[in-house]
Design goal:
Helices cover about 25% and strands about 30% of the residues. The chain is α+β, with helices and mostly antiparallel strands and about 350 residues long. It has 8 helices and 20 strands.
Length: about 350
């Protein structure tokens, strides 16, 4: 019999960072991390954009999220001796009068002045772009090297003996007065599920209103340019590794068909052809399926009837920014019995009748 403070199921960004954070707090933890097709973490751009959408609205709770994530990722950098967090600006292509008017309206609002501006000094973009109406700039954005982060965290957890590369079997989990027994050999005081879009296969949490949101991206090389900032239009162009660029992504709701689609690659390539004056070449095409919640907020907290069983899910396209905050909220709830913020607490869906105790 092996005994743990916490069993974590799901080795994507949320599960890995939760296991890492629990281990750092002195908890004995085991992480079941079985890679399956369609996981979004492995293809994530890691971009944290404080202003999003066609109407240029501040990301929910962005001030709190930024404070939490910068401290969180900087701490990991220090512990693991890596560099994965980078501050960036986002140059926005305003392609029609409606977008320009929406931007100008936002830039005049006091609460947006720290986030956006209509700056003219963007020569590095102007000479490589086919004409747009005008350009705007989003400030105080960040990018996390997700692949570098995951490699370092998984190596650390592997050395600590925390990782189990096994698919979790729900039928072999049993409730006990002291916690949860798995396969009659693993005991955990708590069990936490961080399974991404596959939460719908989980018999304990498949009632949650989480739907799959498929996204595809391409990696390209672009001749004769070297830009450092992110460019945002219909798609987002991000400076990437080895002088390449990440372009994406689309949003296909309730699409769990595995694999890439040639039609989406064509759309993304057409966007570049209509946007850039320089030739490019596609060198990679990939996809991932994100878990999105009905109200576009993460879902964190304890199962309504299974004591010491928790979930952390529903990050949608904002896993990089939301995970540090949600990890902190959940750990404080488990260790110190703190109240989870009502905006992300699983209880909101229980109150709305999504959970039926049969």
């Amino acid at each position: 019999m092996e005994s743990f403070d916490s069993i974590v199921v799901g080795g994507g960004l949320a599960g890995a960072l939760l296991a890492f954070s629990l281990e750092q707090k002195g908890h004995k933890v085991v992480l079941y991390s079985y890679q399956q097709e369609g996981e979004s973490t492995r293809v994530s751009s890691g971009l944290v954009n404080p202003v999003t959408g066609m109407r240029f609205v501040k990301t929910w709770n962005i001030e709190v999220l930024l404070e939490e994530l910068v401290s969180f990722y900087r701490n990991i950098e220090s512990i693991l001796n890596i560099e994965i967090l980078y501050e960036t600006d986002i140059v926005v292509r305003l392609e029609n009068a409606a977008e320009e008017n929406a931007w100008l309206s936002r830039s005049g609002e006091e609460e947006y002045k720290q986030w956006i501006s209509s700056e003219e000094e963007m020569d590095e973009f102007k000479h490589i772009m086919i004409d747009s109406l005008s350009l705007g700039k989003i400030r105080n954005a960040w990018r996390v090297d997700i692949q570098g982060l995951m490699n370092a965290v998984n190596h650390y957890l592997g050395v600590k003996g925390v990782l189990r590369n096994e698919k979790f079997k729900y039928t072999e989990l049993r409730s006990q007065e002291t916690g949860w027994l798995y396969q009659n050999t693993i005991h955990g005081k708590h069990i936490i599920f961080c399974e991404g879009f596959r939460i719908n296969e989980n018999p304990f949490f498949n009632w949650l209103p989480v739907y799959p949101l498929k996204g595809e991206h391409i990696t390209v090389t672009i001749d004769e340019i070297a830009i450092n900032d992110v460019m945002l239009g219909h798609y987002t162009l991000i400076p990437w590794k080895n002088g390449n660029y990440w372009l994406g992504a689309n949003y296909q709701v309730n699409d769990i068909q595995m694999g890439i689609t040639p039609a989406e690659r064509q759309l993304q390539e057409e966007f570049l052809q209509q946007t850039l004056t320089k030739p490019f070449r596609t060198i990679h095409h990939d996809y991932g399926i994100r878990p999105a919640s009905r109200d576009r907020r993460p879902i964190v907290g304890e199962h309504p009837s299974c004591k010491n069983m928790y979930v952390m899910n529903g990050f949608g396209t904002k896993g990089t920014s939301l995970t540090p905050y949600c990890v902190s909220q959940l750990i404080d709830s488990i260790i110190d019995h703190s109240t989870i913020s009502t905006d992300i607490d699983i209880k909101r869906f229980v109150k709305k009748g999504y959970y039926k105790n049969n």
